[in-house]
Amino acid sequence: MSVFKKYFITYFCALFAPLLVISFLFINYMGSYLKDGMVKNTRYMLSQVQHIIDMQLIGVNNISFQISGDHQLTPYLIKKNLYYGKYAQEALRSYKSTSSFVDEIFLYIRGDQYIYSTSSSYSISKFMDTRFSYEQWSNSDFIDTINHVQTPLVRPAENVDIIGRLNEKAVPRKIVSLIVPMPIYEPSPYGTLIFHIREEQFTKLISNIMTDYDGNTMIVDHEGNIITALKYKAYMNSGKFKALLANRGKQSGSTGITLDGEKYMVTSIFSDRTNWSYWTLVPASAVSDVVNQTKLAVTLVLFVVLLLSGLVIYYITFLHYKPIKQLQELFRGRGGEDSPHRNELDKIRSGIHHMLEINHNLSVHKQGSQAAVRDYLLSRLLKGQVYDLSENGRALEEAGLSFSNPYFVVAVMLLHDRDRLEANDRPQFDLAAIERNVPDGMQGFAKEYVETNSVVLLLTVRDKNRIWLTETLEEYNQRLRQYHNAHITMGVGRVYEEANLIGKSYLEAITALNYRLILGNDRLISIDELSESSEAKNSYPRKEIEALAVAIRREDKSLIDAAARSLVEFVKEGRISLFIARCICYDVINTIIKVLDEVQRSGASPAEYYPDVTRIMEFGTIEELVDVVKAVCFDLCDKINEGKTENSLVVKMRRYIEDNYSDPNCSINYLADAHELSESYLSRYFKSETGQTFTDYVVQLRIEKAKLMLVTTDVALKEIIQQVGYYDVSSFIRLFKKMTGVTPGAYRSRNS
C-alpha cells in the first residue's frame, strides 16, 4: 500500500471514530432530552397563560369589591326611585371601562324586579326572553342562581344568543359567565353581579403565548369542568379524560394518556388564586416528529462533516505526501529503485543510503583538495577580494579558516638561508609549526611563497594594542629563528577590524619588509615605526580618492579622468614617502572594489571584476597605475550602464517612494536595510542620480499629490494631509505655503 493511502486512511479513521461515537451517544440521548425540553417549555408557556388570566380575574374580583363598596349602589337607593337606576347603569359602565377583559356587567338587587347592565335595565321575566338567551341556562335556574348564590361560581363557555332591539337578528356568542354575590364573601349578600367574558378573550391569550404549538390547551375549574378550550375535541367528552381531570385536582405535572387510540403528553398546573387548573395535550406523534427531524438533521450534518473532513484530510494528506513524492522523484535513478513491493519511504531510504555513500566518497576526495582550497581562499583574503566574511563564511569554515578574534594583521617572513637548508635536505619552512606556535591571544594561518623564500602569516588578534603586538611578535620571531635555525626577517602591517582591509595590512607588511635594506635583516620591522615620521610631515589625498569614488558612481568618465590626474599631481608634488605612495595605490584599488560591490548590491549586476591589489607592486611609475585605474574605471562605467534596467537601484528607490509616500514612516532607513547598504551612501547615490536629496524628493511628491487632491476632490484638508503622510495640520500648512507661496485653502479656491 502506498504511503498516501496509509496517511489518508489513518487520518480519516482518527477523525471518524470519535465523531461516530459522539454522534451515536447524541442521537440516543437526544430523544429524552428533547422530550424534557418540550415539557419544560410547555409548562413555562402554560404558567404564563395562568399568570395572565389570574391577573385578569383578580381585576374582575377588584371590580366586584368596588361595586360592593359603592354607597350609591345600595338596595335602598336603587329601589327608591328611577334616578338611581340610571345612576346604576352609568356606574356599571364606568367600572366596565377599567377592564378590557370583561364584555358586560349585570347588577341584580335581590328582591327587585329589575336587572341593571351598562346600557339598560331589564325586568327579570324579559331578561332571558328578549335580550339574552343562554343555551344551557334555563329561566328558573337563572332566577334561582341570582337570588341564592353565596360564593362566586363560573359557568363554562356556552352559546348565548344576544338579541338586539326592535327584533334585530340574534347574534350567538360563546360566553363565560362569572357570578359573584354582593358583597362578596359575606354571609347575607343583598345582590348578585354577573360578568360576561367572551371565550375568545381566553383563546386569544392562549394563542398568543402558545406559539409553534400543535396541541390543545384548556382551563378547568375546581370541579373538573372545562371552562374553555383552544380546540374542542371528541376526546374531551370521554369518561377516561373526565376522570383524569377529576382525579388530578390541585396537582401539577406531566403524564401520558391514550385517548381514542392516540397517545398524548399531558401537562397541567394549578392556580391557588382561582382554583383553576390549566391543561395542555400534545400528540406524542408531534414529539416524535420533532425528535425524528432532529435526528435526520444531525445525520445530515454528520454526513456533511464527514464529507468536508474527508476533503480536508485528503488535502492535508496531499500536502504531507507532496515532499515525500518529491523526494521519491529526486532519488529516482539514484539508488531509489522502482519496485511494486516497495513503498515510497523504502525507495527514499534506499536513495539516501546511496547518496550517503556518494557523499562519503566525495568527502574522502575533498580532504585531498582541502589544502588547495585553503591556499586559494587565503590568496583572495590577502588580495583584498573578500569584502564581507559573512558571504563566504561557510567556504572559509570548510577550508579550516575560522576566525575567533576580532582584529586582523598580516606578517611576512623572509628566509635568508635557503641554500644552506636545501643542502641539508630540510624544508624551507615548517608551516604546521609556524601555525602551531602562534602566541596566546592570536590565531595564525600561513601560506608559503617558495619563489620568494617567504611565508605570509594572516593573524587574528584579540587586542589591537601596538606595544603588546610588537613585543609578542618579536618573541615569536625569535622562536621561529631558533626552531628553523635560520635567519628570518619579519615585516608586520597595521591591525584592522574590517576583513576587506587585510590586503592593505599585507601591503604594509611587504613595505615594512622592504625597509630591511635600511634597517637590516634578522629582525621584526613594523610599519608603525616607519610611518610615524612621514605621516606627521605629509597629508593624505582622501578628498581626491573620494572624488574618484563619486565619479565612478556617477559613471562620469571626465570626472574619473580629472580625479585620476589630481592623484598624480598629489603624488608628484607632495614628495611623499614610499609607504604613503603604496597606501594611496591600495586605497585607490580598494575604492574601485568597494564601489563595484555597492553597484552589485544595488541590482545593476555587472560581471565580477576585482583587480588584484598585489599588482601595484609591479608598476614602475604612478602614471602607469593611474592608466590602469582609468581603464578599469571606464570599463566599470560601461558595465554599469549596460546593467541598468528597470530593476536598477534608483528605479527601485523611486518606486518605493511612489508606493509609500502616504506612510509617515517612509524613510531611507528601510531602503538601506533592504539593500544592505549604508544610509549615507544611499543618500549620496540618490542625490547624484536625481539631483535632489531623498527627503526633498519625498516632500515634493507629497506636496504634488496634495495639490492634485485639492483641485480634483472635495476631500477635507485634514484627511488629505493624512493621506499624504502628515499628522500635524499646522506644520503641513506652513510647509505647503513655503513650497507654493499660498495656503492649501487659497490654492483650492484659486484652482477650483
By DSSP (H or I, 4+ residues per run), the number of helices equals 27
Helix content: 55-70%
Give a quick account of the main beta sheet: strands, pairing sense, barrel closure: 7 strands, antiparallel
Q: Strand fraction band?
A: 5-15%
Low-confidence stretches: 533-537, 604-617
Sheet with most strands: strand arrangement: 3-2-1-7-6-5-4
> What structural class do you assign from the helix and strand content?
alpha+beta
Tell the overall outline.
Answer: elongated
| Mean of pLDDT | 80
Overall strand count:
17
Distance between the termini: 77 Å
What would you report as the Rg, rounded to the nearest angstrom?
A: 56 Å
Organism: Cohnella soli
Pfam families: GGDEF_2, HTH_18
Keywords: DNA-binding, Membrane, Transcription, Transcription regulation, Transmembrane, Transmembrane helix
InterPro entries: CdaR_GGDEF, Homeodomain-like_sf, HTH_AraC, HTH_AraC-typ_CS, Tscrpt_reg_AraC-type_HTH
What does this structure look like?
There is one protein chain. The chain is an alpha+beta fold. 58% of the residues lie in helices and 15% in strands. The protein is built from 27 helices and 17 strands. Strands 3-2-1-7-6-5-4 form a 7-stranded antiparallel β-sheet. It is elongated, with a radius of gyration of 56 Å. The two termini are 77 Å apart. Mean pLDDT is 80; it is low at 533-537 and 604-617.
Summarize, please.
With 752 residues, the protein is of the alpha+beta class. The protein contains 27 helices and 17 strands. The two termini are 77 Å apart.
